Amino acid sequence: MKIEVCAGARCTMLGSDIIFNRLSDFVEEFNDRLYKGELDVQDIELEIEMITCNDECKKNKKNAPIVIVNGKVFTNAKTEVIMEYILDKAFEDKFK
What we know:
- By secondary structure, the protein is an alpha+beta fold.
- The chain has a single domain, classed as Glutaredoxin (3-Layer(aba) Sandwich).
- It has helices at about 10-15, 15-35, 55-60, 80-90, and strands spanning about 1-5, 45-50, 65-70, 70-75.
- Strand 3 (about 65-70) and strand 4 form a beta hairpin.
């Protein structure tokens, strides 16, 4: 699962660097526990990267900061919301 955090000026001013750091720790912990077999989830690996501005916040200044998870755009992104979305997707098959 690919997580992209916008590194554009507006997003950075509104905390995307903090979101990136917190999500990076989350990704590292998730992947570590997955490799150790401590998580009973579908076989997904998380990856995270900073991306250049994708112009989402230019459509509406209130959209920043932007985080994209597997193509799903989160505007006015909050770390906890992103983490919850990722965990919901990871455990999705377990609760069907």
